[in-house]
């Protein structure tokens, strides 16, 4: 019982590392682990090249999906900052898709991404194997405030499926390195937080080149670029596109929209203590997150979604069209004097919003609205730091301090009800883990393909791994020839009929569909005969390791 009571204890206040930095400095700081909420102007129109905040412009439009669109963030001179902004479309279709009662909202991706960052971020700011998720964006006014989007790490590269799922592809070294890095990242996340992506296909893994050719000194860049020779189907596509962008390559898992933290998965991967941490983390994810404090010009209380509050069909139907507004509360406090705001800006634009003193804030007792001219005169948004540590850190500290009490007070937790579509999706993929999901996609893409004869042993090892997990026997052939030969790959018409057989076989009669990433890493495809101990992939991989052409 003591452990259960500890969940309700006051949350520890963390001092943000970037509290006194400007917004641009904060965006460029890769080592900061604090979580921020940024208030967006209500009427702002997302348009490529337009000024967003002071020193920050919307850069190149990178793409759009059903829920959101993505832009690069750039300095005023056009140089990239290293972050991208992902924002909701704002139309009716987007509002319905971003609704946790109907499907899964984009705020879920932000919640999962920030917890992954808290659990896995290394000194220097890297989150190996995962796209790093940073601040959330809040938009709207007059009680209509809502989660609008988030800031994320910018990746330089292509989605894996655009290189592998083409007829001419025949580079087994690329496949091995991609799977090795992906399973290494999954193993770390499974042992830390019981991470289950639930949609880990080749469309949700991206290449990332930490340095691109243009960022290297001229001579060094030309020498390194010369090694990346053009071999269709091996180091590029048939038309010569998608050549390597830099001398080193990482693979990053993206899109955490339907991911979750599973206590059972954590127990299987790392034992009972990891299971307790994940149970506490899931409990804390259902509590309000506060941004800002009494001295800030605004405070935000963000409550994660929980569709159990909407009982009955009509209540759920109504919330599909008009999501509940009680989940997000934005409280704006007044500023007595314009001079006090200007003094805060001179001390550090944008930074005082997270850590202002009582005198600087000049908050009036009777309430009111902040002077818009003061807050927007220099295009600096209100930026508020999270008032508490990340849920993962709180959960880990609580279990470490009260392990005995937590172990002796097992209490059945109330399950969080899911949307109908999410429920059906999870039932379909029940007992099928991320390793199975990814390897089934590999089987669909690489079945009935011709490979270089010199890679015969590694291709056989891949087929063994796929068969061990999915139960699917891949068809392969080998032939002599140099990489890039037209003899390699497969014909389109030969493959279509096999796809349905592979899908049915994998889903109806899988072999080891719940295989952990740690177990997959022990396969000879990755160990290459070295059984001295489990090893993770070294990051980043040198280009000749992924595209060997000599």
From TrEMBL:
Region (Disordered): 399-419
Coiled coil region boundaries: none
Natural source organism: Chlorella variabilis (Green alga)
Superkingdom of the source species: Eukaryota
UniProt feature, compositional bias: Basic and acidic residues: 399-408
Gene3D superfamilies registered for this protein in UniProt: Transferase(Phosphotransferase) domain 1
Protein's name in the database: Expressed protein
Biased segments, Basic residues type: 409-418
InterPro entries xref list: Kinase-like_dom_sf
């Amino acid at each position: 019982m003591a452990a259960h009571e500890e969940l309700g204890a006051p949350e520890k206040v963390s001092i943000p590392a970037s509290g006194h930095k400007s917004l641009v400095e904060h965006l460029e700081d890769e080592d900061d682990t604090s979580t921020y909420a940024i208030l967006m102007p209500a009427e702002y129109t997302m348009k490529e090249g337009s000024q967003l905040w002071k020193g920050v412009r919307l850069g190149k439009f990178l793409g759009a999906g059903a829920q959101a669109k993505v832009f690069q963030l750039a300095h005023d001179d056009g140089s990239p900052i290293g972050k991208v902004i992902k924002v909701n479309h704002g139309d009716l279709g987007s509002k319905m898709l971003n609704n946790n009662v109907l499907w899964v909202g984009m705020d879920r991706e932000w919640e999962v991404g920030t917890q992954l960052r808290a659990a896995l971020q290394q000194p220097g700011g890297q989150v190996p194997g995962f796209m790093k998720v940073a601040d959330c964006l809040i938009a709207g006014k007059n009680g209509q405030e809502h989660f609008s989007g988030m800031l994320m790490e910018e990746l330089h590269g292509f989605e894996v499926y655009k290189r592998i799922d083409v007829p001419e592809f025949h580079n087994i070294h690329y496949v091995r390195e991609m799977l090795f890095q992906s399973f290494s990242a999954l193993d770390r996340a499974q042992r830390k937080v019981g991470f289950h992506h639930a949609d880990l296909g080749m469309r949700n893994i991206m290449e990332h080149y930490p340095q691109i050719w243009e960022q290297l000194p001229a001579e060094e860049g030309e020498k390194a670029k010369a090694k990346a020779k053009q071999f269709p189907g091996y180091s590029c596509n048939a038309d010569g596109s998608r050549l390597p962008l830099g001398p080193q390559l990482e693979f990053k898992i993206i899109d955490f929209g339907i991911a979750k933290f599973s206590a059972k998965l954590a127990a299987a991967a790392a034992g009972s203590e990891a299971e307790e941490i994940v149970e506490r983390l899931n409990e804390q994810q259902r509590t309000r997150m506060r941004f800002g404090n009494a001295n800030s010009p605004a405070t935000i209380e963000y409550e994660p979604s929980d569709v159990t509050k909407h009982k009955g069909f009509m209540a759920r139907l109504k919330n599909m069209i008009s999501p509940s507004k009680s989940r997000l509360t934005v409280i704006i406090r007044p500023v007595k004097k314009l001079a006090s705001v200007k003094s805060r800006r001179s001390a550090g634009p944008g930074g005082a919003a997270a850590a202002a003193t009582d005198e600087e804030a000049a908050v009036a007792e009777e309430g009111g609205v902040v002077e818009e001219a003061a807050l927007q005169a220099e295009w600096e948004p209100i930026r508020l730091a999270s008032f508490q540590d990340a849920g993962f850190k709180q959960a880990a500290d609580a279990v470490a301090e009260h392990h005995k009490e937590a172990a002796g007070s097992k209490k059945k937790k109330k399950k969080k009800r899911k949307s109908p579509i999410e429920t059906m999706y999870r039932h379909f993929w029940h007992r099928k883990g991320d390793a199975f999901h990814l390897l089934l996609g590999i089987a669909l893409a690489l079945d009935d393909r011709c490979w270089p004869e010199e890679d015969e042993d590694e291709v056989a090892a891949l087929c063994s791994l796929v068969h061990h997990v999915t139960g699917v026997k891949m068809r392969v052939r080998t032939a002599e020839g140099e990489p890039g030969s037209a003899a390699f790959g497969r014909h389109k018409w030969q493959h279509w009929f096999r796809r349905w057989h592979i899908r049915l076989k994998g889903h109806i009669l899988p072999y080891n569909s719940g295989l952990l990433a740690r177990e997959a890493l022990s396969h000879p495809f990755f160990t290459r005969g070295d059984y001295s101990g489990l090893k993770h992939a070294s990051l980043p991989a040198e280009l000749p390791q992924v595209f060997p052409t000599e």
